[in-house]
Amino acid sequence: MGKIQEFEITFSRNQVVYNPGESISGTLKFKVTETMPCKAIKVNCNGFCGVTNKANDSDWTVQEQYFNSTISVAEKGTLKPGDQSFPFKFLIPATAPTSFEGTYGKIIYRVRAFVDTPRFSKNYKTEKPFYLLTLLNLNDVPEILGPNVSAVTREFTYLLVKSGSVVLSAESDMKGYTPGQVIKLSVNIHNQSGKTTSMVVASLMQKVSYETKKPTHDLRTIAEVEGSPVKPGKEAQWTEQMIVPPLPQSSLAGCDLIKINYYIKVSIKSPEVMLVLPIHIGNVSLDKKATAKPSTSTTRTPASVTDGDPTLPPRTAPKTAPKPTPRNRASSYIPPSAPPAEGGRGAAGGGSHTDEAHPTKSNVHMGELGPRTPVSPNSFSYAPGLTFPQNQRHSSGPVGPSEPFYPEVNANPMLAPSPLILPPDYQTTSYPHGQYWFWSG
């Protein structure tokens, strides 16, 4: 490395995950082996998004910059032999989006350092990446409450002769999930034809769109389960569960070049029938109290009586009817003001079809997750000598990297932010790493 050795950047408390609006500080350290002149020593902090039309290519077709700040930690002079240390501090803008790395684009944040030397001398530089995470609270997503249902009817023919139709409907228990939660899916298939259908398949899909002159879409199957075929003239009900693996959140607020969407696809290959249920992936789970249906209990009013009964308080006698009849003990009670007590309900009448339980190829039985440790962003401060736009949000408490937390099955559920899902190392080629499949024999 020449006259400079051990040229590196370290962050305070070895922190690698930050929140927008926080300050990032650290130290530039290196060792000088012999006296050398330098023009300046500078530290730069920047963040940008780059997308391309070629997989795993860093020659960006379009770029979008979020911030780029440089400070000089040493001016022109001579560096003496020995260990050198220079502190630095930057403020991360509150509008910077969450870090992301995909096949056709990345959102990258890094700190770089430069030692500028006189002409014809070797310059030195180094860099170190860090990651931003903005917690997505699913309760703040518009129109996320309410049922998530969809239905489609497919009429099909064979050799220009109408063969029948298949009615496919599906419902998920919620519209938003956090990593580790379980998607509860209910599917109904009514085969109104004379042919047996193929297997029914439910898939959790991720669609990442990269905005260039010719937009690129990366579609991945994250998890998939299968159910049995439905015989002619039968109607079957199929229920299944899929656990949400660690995934980047749906929203990359502040980024205009990369969009992430998730949905559940339910399909039958023969005859070809398909429907989708859009969902959101976030970091703070939905408040189940807000999504629960209000109770419809009815308060019954006790029957009112006349003053003919000495054990009850007196009340005003009813108005005289046009054609009065002689009063007697049997007529001393007036009709109750509340509806009569409901009797036992009979069984509802069924149709001509036969309902069946729909077996599934993947017997996935996942329980509710237990409590997680809440996390919240750090408070921030402005770096001396630097100017940034006023932050748009407040935060409190430190945040650091953590691994996904999966407590034991059937633990009591508790509302809490999802564990931080760290972006992959920038040396990897794609994200997420492979596909997630859940099968059992």
From TrEMBL:
Transmembrane segments: none annotated. Residues 343-352 have a biased composition (Gly residues). Residues 292-306 have a biased composition (Low complexity). Pfam families: Arrestin_C (PF02752), Arrestin_N (PF00339). SUPFAM superfamilies: E set domains (SSF81296). Residues 311-325 have a biased composition (Pro residues). Residues 289-375 are annotated as: Disordered. InterPro entries: Arrestin-like_C (IPR014752), Arrestin-like_N (IPR011021), Arrestin_C-like (IPR011022), Arrestin_domain-protein (IPR050357), Ig_E-set (IPR014756). One of its GO terms (molecular function) is ubiquitin protein ligase binding. GO terms for biological process: nervous system development; protein transport. GO terms for cellular component: cytoplasm. Residues 162-286 form the Arrestin C-terminal-like domain. PANTHER family: ARRESTIN DOMAIN CONTAINING PROTEIN, ARRESTIN DOMAIN-CONTAINING PROTEIN 1. Belongs to the arrestin family. This is Arrestin domain-containing protein 1. It comes from Merluccius polli.
